[in-house]
Amino acid sequence: MMRALSLLSLLLSWSSIIFALELHGYVQWNDLCPSYEALASAKVLLDAGKMSGRVTRNGNFSIPDVPPGTYILSVLSHDYSFDHVRIDVSRSEPQPEVRPHIFGTPLLTTTSFSLPYPILLIPRHKNRYFSPRESFNLLGMFQSPMMMIMVLTGVMMLAMPYIMKNMDPETLDGLKGQVKAASKQNSIQSGDPGGLSALLAAEETKASTPVVKSNTGSSTLQQRKGGKGNKRR
């Protein structure tokens, strides 16, 4: 029994070698990638490296000894991106079937649209690994939400004295009451219920107390002058 199984596996491996195909294809140069020098070193992979072949200087490539099965062909290139291609190798067909493939879709989903053989690969995009540094944009700076808040705050601070002058006395008194209530609430929440109210009361007392100029300095100076005159006499 063991000999029969080993013989069967050997026959299957031989049959896969006998029916193995050599895939051929080429890279078509375009304005994006005009020559081999622009493409540099590139490899054509089956199933992400299960089998591979290199692109020659004239753009041709080949992958030998491909057994029957379904594969995804891709190009490993540093600077350029290529489309993925589905390859179906069958024992009953002398040539493989080539179909387009979208990366990430399962192999069970097939399409009736076929591509020509030998396999044609065209560079689609050039890879960019670095983005250019953005230049200074004054308009973009003022479009920032933080900058807009700062500008509006500055405008309100500058316009507040003019707004206070043009307000009605009743409205102004109501606003002062709201400010006092808010400051008292904040002081209570911060743990200093009497500190801020006392400070406001002191400021109001200073503002309401009239300033009295003292004449002590002038009277003292006159007395000194009078004393000097008496001594001279």
Overview features:
Immunoglobulin-like, 10 strands, 5-stranded antiparallel sheet, alpha+beta, 21% strand, 3-stranded mixed sheet, 233 residues
Please, what is the average pLDDT?
76
CATH superfamily of one domain: Carboxypeptidase-like, regulatory domain
Q: How many strands in all?
A: 10
CATH structural architecture of one domain? Sandwich
Which fold name is given in CATH as the topology of one domain? Immunoglobulin-like
How would you describe the shape?
Answer: elongated
Largest sheet: 5 strands, antiparallel
Which value, in Å, is the CA radius of gyration? Answer: 46 Å
How much helix, percentage-wise, in residues?
Answer: 40-55%
If helices are DSSP runs of H or I spanning 4 or more residues, what is the number of helices?
7
State the CATH class of one domain.
Mainly Beta
Beta-strand level of the residues, as a percent range?
A: 15-25%
Given the helix and strand composition, which structural class is it? alpha+beta
- Give the termini distance in whole angstroms: 154 Å
User: Which residues sit in consecutive blocks of at least 5 with pLDDT less than 50?
Assistant: none
How do the helices and strands follow one another from N- to C-terminus? Answer: HEHEEEEEEEEEHHHHH
Strand order of the largest sheet: 3-2-5-7-8
